[in-house]
Write a structure and sequence with these properties.
The chain has 913 residues and is mainly alpha-helical. Among the domains are: 174 residues, P-loop containing nucleotide triphosphate hydrolases (Rossmann fold), CATH 3.40.50.300; 57 residues, no CATH class; 105 residues, no CATH class; 96 residues, Serine Threonine Protein Phosphatase 5, Tetratricopeptide repeat (Alpha Horseshoe), CATH 1.25.40; 55 residues, Orthogonal Bundle (Arc Repressor Mutant, subunit A). Helix content is 65%, strand content 4%. It has a 5-stranded parallel β-sheet, with helices on both faces. The chain has a two-stranded antiparallel sheet with strand order 6-7.
Length: 913
């Protein structure tokens, strides 16, 4: 097809090719209706690439969309030998996904990382252009991998051009650079039409055709070859309506109906076989007794081209053939194809053909489909597993067995990131069909579908998990205990927004379960620990939680157990102020998530780790972790608006220097309310209180912090007690301060960590009279200095200096305040640094502001790369950690060097701290 009137589109494609030649990467999505010229533009891009460019092509096939990793395998076949250069976990995952090896189910994001690495390896030898046609019909697993790559490329010399048909519910590429294709303008459309009309063309007829087609190039081309010479000259009236736009399919159907019967049957076989394998189609045709010339007549019709595989002129041709056939003929075609699909590697395809050939329930075919589902899951193809199980359920006569398969399909849908599909499968089930175990599984699947959809179901999750635990009962004790553990986890997450139950009810259910003694499994210890804490108090619950954390950190604990329990374990560490164990748990969770490609888990762990570093005063490290999380969310396809709630409110508050930023901090919490994330709301409220303390509004801080501890059943807000004591003392509420001090004292006696004891000494000093305060302040500074909590050391010195100034000991006060200011400026705690500067000025000393740190010149991504390089990581190691290619890391590192005025990593270590 000539590219008439596509100058702007060609210029965009040329920009892509120019970038590749310069060693940079570019991505472009061409979006438009059927026949608008998307494939012709892809053909142009491939043909215009120079000889040094490797062109990789793949096209989506609608009937292949249920086969896991099918498109990715077809695309990467010529280059799979390079997988041996990838990190072991990525190499193995890609081999399993592509059916080259057996092994654990391939995580889709680990395969995505492997795809990025493999294409970057190919691009190391010269530019690579990936042309992905009809992306809306790629299988979901392949599409996930390619969308991931598209969001991570930058400096590899790798171009990816996708085409997507409008009018389909397809969102995988949202947010990527997109070019919407419209119909040709009047002049260009007329020029194209005249080029394909063999004889005279009346201008009025041409205008009529151009208007009717909306400038659609395929419609113009087809009409130029289908209408008669008399119609073009205006001697005969044009058909009304013209077969264009939505009627293109009907137009093709007319052509098909004019072919011999055997040719139509042969075309139906070709349309029903997604691989396009000519030999298989020929065998199926023989089984149906079609005449040998049927294939030749199909090719002569210009609807297909035939080599070793059959290619349709346009996807609409395939749709017209398959959609226009009567159901009985479609089933016969699939039956014949099943008989011709006999290879050992084609078991799943054969089962799918048999399923399509089956009209009513068929136990044998349903069993085959379930086996296919398990094979798909073994390759990490959970989207395919959903399709196989859902169809197996449709072909199952027995209600209980059908329900079991539908629940399994719903669970797979949740795992594959299709929560709406999971809900639809569960909504179609009658409660009477479910036994207790399947009812429990269905409840868990429904809870996680709702959480994934972000519709507030976090608030309901604990109640749903309790119902699931009751359903599992004694029949599935391990599932019962897992459901109870999840009920505790979601109760901690939902906090005051919890619906359908209460934290007390959750705790009672956990303690009523007959756990076998002694408890050894980390998740059971953690669940019982929090339940004991809620019912019997901190003194009895905290030691059990400590045992749970120790069990989770024991050598040899399986990865899946740690990923299952790390969130609750980190909370258990926080309420004891046990930063060493918290960081150990988080480091292991992050390492496992990176290694296995569990990106959602990794994003959550990085966010939590950034909070832990913030508490210690490592704000720059926290920001780097937040930047890491942004990289991952970008790779997952999230927009900034979707992830607004994942800003770090405490980090914002510590960095802030102005009161008005409390509006932004509060906004993070408000964004979390509809989702049911009560814990994030509380974190935002704590952040507001921190900002209020820093800017001199203790009464406001007291109100916010008192609110946090009023209903703190699980004691998760133990960490706010020192701040509440300070805010209460400063605002004149001594009674509340003493009550909070007693709570802190009782918990410090149990937790017995240096951090919590240092905070207790600091808090006691605030309430002490006379000379006793000084001893306590000194003790607090000394005890906190034994820990890594630099922020609390700085605040202890600030409070001590403020007390000394009020005692009119200005010289002594200056020493403490000067040290506090230096620490707070080094940390970057803006509001508290200003508070220290004001106090120092009140002693008669003026403090100059320090220079801006080197990090301020860098973007968050550059700062993260700089920190990793400073600490000795190689480009390859940085790339693996940030889900980038080594080429992109090198590109950003060169920018870092230029901005900081250094030429080596050794020099980087000297200037970037």
């Amino acid at each position: 097809m000539e590219l008439w009137g596509r100058e702007a589109e060609l210029a965009r494609l040329d920009d892509v090719l120019t970038s590749l030649a310069d060693g940079l990467s570019r991505v472009l999505v061409l979006r438009g209706e059927a026949g608008i010229g998307k494939t012709a533009l892809l053909d142009h891009a491939a043909a215009a690439s120079d000889d040094s460019t490797t062109v990789v092509r793949v096209a989506g096939v609608e009937s292949e969309a249920d086969f896991p990793w099918a498109a990715l395998h077809r695309m990467l076949i010529p280059h799979l030998d390079r997988r041996l250069r990838l990190p072991t976990a990525q190499r193995d995952a890609l081999a399993v996904a592509c059916g080259l090896a057996d092994g654990p189910a391939a995580d889709r994001y680990l395969v995505s990382l492997a795809t990025l690495g493999l294409l970057a390896e190919v691009a190391a030898a010269g530019p690579v252009l990936c042309c992905v046609d009809d992306a809306q019909w790629l299988d979901a697993d392949s599409m996930t991998a390619l969308a991931f790559v598209a969001r991570r490329v930058h400096a590899e010399g790798l171009g990816i051009v996708f085409t997507v048909r409008t009018g389909t519910p397809f969102t995988a590429l949202d947010g990527l650079p997109t070019l919407d294709l419209e119909g040709l303008g009047t002049a260009a459309a007329g020029q194209l039409l005249r080029s394909v009309v063999p004889g005279a063309l009346d201008p009025r007829v041409a205008d009529q055709i151009v208007r009717a087609t909306g400038g659609n190039p395929l419609a113009l081309t087809d009409l130029g070859q289908e209408l008669t010479a008399d119609q073009f000259r205006g001697g005969r009236q044009l058909p009304e309506p013209l077969p264009v736009g939505p009627r293109l399919e009907a137009h093709y159907r007319t052509q098909i109906d004019a072919l011999p019967t055997d040719t139509q049957s042969w075309l139906l076989l070709a349309a029903a076989e997604p691989s396009g394998h000519y030999g298989r189609i020929a065998d199926a045709a023989a089984a149906l007794g079609l005449v040998p010339g049927a294939a030749e007549a199909a090719e002569a019709s210009r609807l297909v081209s035939i080599t070793t595989e059959v290619r349709f002129r346009h996807p609409l041709v395939r749709s017209a053939i398959y959609g226009g056939a009567i159901p009985g003929d479609r089933r016969a075609a699939h039956r014949a194809l099943a008989s011709a699909t006999t290879g050992s590697s084609d078991v799943d395809r054969r089962a799918w053909h048999l399923a399509a050939a089956t009209l009513g329930p068929d136990a044998a075919v349903a069993d085959q489909l379930e086996h296919c589902a398990e094979r798909a899951a073994a390759r990490g193809g959970y989207a395919a597993r959903v399709s196989f199980l859902a169809r197996a359920a449709e072909l199952t006569a027995d209600d209980r067995e059908r329900a079991r398969r539908a629940v399994m399909a719903a669970q797979a849908a949740v795992t594959s990131g299709a929560p709406l599909q999971a809900r639809a499968l569960l909504d179609a089930l009658a409660p009477a069909w479910l036994d207790d175990v399947d009812r429990g599984r269905a409840l868990i699947a429904r809870a996680y579908a709702g959480i994934t959809l972000g519709d507030g179901s976090v608030a309901d999750a604990s109640a749903i998990c309790l119902a699931a635990a009751e359903a599992f009962g004694d029949a599935e004790p391990d599932l019962t205990r897992l459901a109870l553990f999840r009920a505790v986890q979601w109760a901690i997450n939902a906090e005051h927004l919890i619906r359908g139950t209460t934290p007390a009810d959750v705790a009672a259910a956990v303690l009523a379960h007959p756990y076998s003694e002694p408890l050894t499994k980390p998740r059971d210890l953690l669940a019982v620990g929090f339940a004991t804490l809620a019912v019997h108090g901190y003194a009895r619950g905290a030691p059990i939680l400590q045992r749970g954390v120790a069990a989770l950190l024991a050598p040899g604990i399986p990865d899946e157990e740690l990923l299952e329990a790390w969130v609750v374990a980190t909370t258990a560490c926080t309420i004891r102020r046990d930063y060493a164990s918290a960081h150990a748990v988080l480091r292991r969770a992050i390492d496992i998530a990176r290694r296995t490609g569990a990106l959602w888990e990794l994003d959550s762990a990085l966010f939590t780790h950034s909070m832990a570093h913030t508490e210690l005063g490592r704000l720059t490290v926290a920001e780097q972790l937040v930047a890491d999380g942004c990289q991952i969310r970008s790779a997952l396809g999230a927009t900034a608006e979707q992830w607004d709630m994942y800003q770090h409110p405490e980090l914002l508050a510590w960095r802030a220097t102005a009161e008005h930023l409390s509006v932004r901090v509060r906004g993070v919490g408000q964004a979390s309310v509809p989702l049911g994330h009560g814990s994030v709301v509380r974190i935002a409220e704590y952040a507001e209180a921190i900002l209020a303390l820093g800017t001199g509004h203790p009464a406001e801080a007291r109100a916010l912090l008192r609110h946090l501890i009023d209903d703190d059943v699980f004691c998760v807000h133990t960490r706010v007690l020192p701040d509440l004591i300070e805010a209460s003392v400063r605002s004149g509420d001594r009674e509340l301060a003493e009550r909070a001090l007693e709570m802190l004292r009782s918990r410090a006696d149990v937790a017995a960590t240096p951090w919590i004891h240092g905070l207790l000494l600091r808090s006691r000093a605030l309430l002490a009279d006379g000379g006793g305060a000084e001893e306590l302040y000194r003790g607090a500074v000394e005890r906190l200095a034994e820990t890594e909590a630099r922020l609390d050391v700085a605040r202890a010195r600030l409070l001590y200096g403020e007390w000394l100034r009020r005692e009119k000991r200005r010289r002594d006060a200056r020493d403490q305040l000067r040290t506090a200011l230096e620490l707070l400026e080094e940390i970057g705690a803006g509001a508290f640094a200003e508070r220290a500067r004001r106090e120092l000025a009140a002693t008669g000393e003026t403090a100059q502001r320090g220079p801006e740190p080197a990090r301020s010149a860098l973007t968050p991504q550059e700062a993260t790369i700089a920190a990793l390089a400073r600490d000795g990581a190689t480009n390859a190691e940085i790339a693996a950690q940030l889900f980038l290619s080594a080429s992109t890391v090198d590109y950003h590192l060169r920018k870092v060097f230029r901005k900081l005025g250094v030429t080596s990593r050794r020099r980087l270590r000297q200037v970037y701290r």
